[in-house]
Design goal:
There is one protein chain. With 535 residues, the chain is mainly β. The chain has four domains: 86 residues, Immunoglobulin-like (Sandwich); 102 residues, Sandwich (Immunoglobulin-like), CATH 2.60.40.10; 132 residues; 161 residues, Roll (C8orf32 fold). The strands form seven sheets. Strands 11, 13, 14, 17, 18 and 19 form a six-stranded mixed sheet that branches. Strands 20, 22, 25, 29, 33 and 34 form a six-stranded antiparallel sheet that branches.
Amino acid sequence: MLFLPWLWAVFSSCKGDAPVIVSLNPRIGMSGEVLTIVGSKFGAERDASYITIAGIPPTTSSYLSWQDDRITLRIPEFGASGLVYVHREGMKSNPLLFSNRAAMPELVQNPNVGREPLISSVKPESGSIGSLITIQGSGFGASREKSGVFFTWNAEPSPGAPIETAEPEVVEVFEMEFGYELWSDREIRLRVPDGAVSGDLLVRTGRGTSKPVSFTVTGKPGTKTFKEKRSYTIAYTVDIQVQEAEVPNTLYLWVPHPVSSASQRQVTLLSRNREPFAENYQGTTLFQLTDLVAHTSVRISLSYVVDVYALETTLRSQSIRPAGDSPIPTVYTLPSGLIPSDNPAVAGAANDIVGRERNPYEKARKLYEWLINAGGIQKTPLHNSALEALAEKQADAYSGVLLFCALARAVAIPAIPVSGVLINRSRSSSRHYWAEFWIEGFGWIPVDPSLGAAAAPEDFNLPPDPGVYYFGNLDNQRIAFSRGQGSLSQMDPRGRITVRNRDYALQNLWEEAIGDLASYSSLWSDITITGMYIQ
């Protein structure tokens, strides 16, 4: 037999290029969770490569990111545990075992210990968005902590997406809607959240998930359509450089993370290089740096994956009913330092713009149309306030949104500013601000005055007729980091605080130095888009 050394060398080289899996995180997981595969030689792009779990290849929509040393995907629906392989160019990696928690046997426990929550009744069995309902049963836990109540939520399926790729379609009750009034082991009082539709209602606690019960959402004066899902992976950092310091000292950092809403979902932490002091502290991740030493540096880095849906609304304004007992109309019409709705100039302008109109939806439309046509919104940052924007008839995205909220609140329309980033065609991000206003029985309705006025970044994809589109509709080319104004409390009244205005989140605290931390500098990076997947 003829032996060709060069042929063996080529074969050996190809064999050596096979992908290698080093670790899986988590090793035991559930459908819908994010699985991270760490290793090497996966390839910079997925292209025709794929993975298999228990011999089953996930669908294309399951993949969140694919890099040469890391793959992330949502665990698909499948019934058994099994080996995970990475397949690339006809080569197969070494296997690692993944276990599906749903298919694992459970130990028999004392029936009085670790009980799953049980719903015995829901009263009433139907209600509108924002209405108060009571759930009675057992095993809910003495306090809510990380537990929650979930309602059915629906999205329009992506074209050509197989039915089996659908994720659990639920929406949680939201804190910013004052969703929970009472949580005890046997009773929960809550409000129906924005985005809920008729279907199942269930309770999730650390002990498990209740059996679902039916709930009917009634009284909607229109419809909301969630569509065109995009999954983004993002990364950002905070760099601290210490110049002068003596022990003891402490530096607190309130780092925003993407918020959850009816249209921004499945916010999942992918990685971070430091454990936080508090995981979810009033909508942020709180880090504590203690006894920093002069002439040293510290970096905090985070990475998330988040699903964003385009939102389209249709509303029969004549079907809007009077306000109920929700606290939203009271709280989100109050004035604040950023939103001076009680200022006589704001109130006078708002009343002049809406005239004799009494319908809240039509009043909001009149305010929006005035802003995009006569409010002088432009893409160049002006660094002015809502009052200055009104007086000068010149606004940017930031002051235009605050002015919209002030005008809306002045005529009794609940409104909140939203801050985050826009995703441009180049996959770069830029800070951006938009707003939402509340209609009783329907929920939050988005408006984007600056994009409605076509004051968009040069490489941003505007829809046709943006002035019409951005009243009541929103694209999927953005990530929100705050809804409303975050009001954080200092850790020490003697601490020296730092506020970052016009950033990607609206919060009153970002940094607090305590003790002998005489001099330091901080650099908060922009939001980097490390992956974007259209589904």
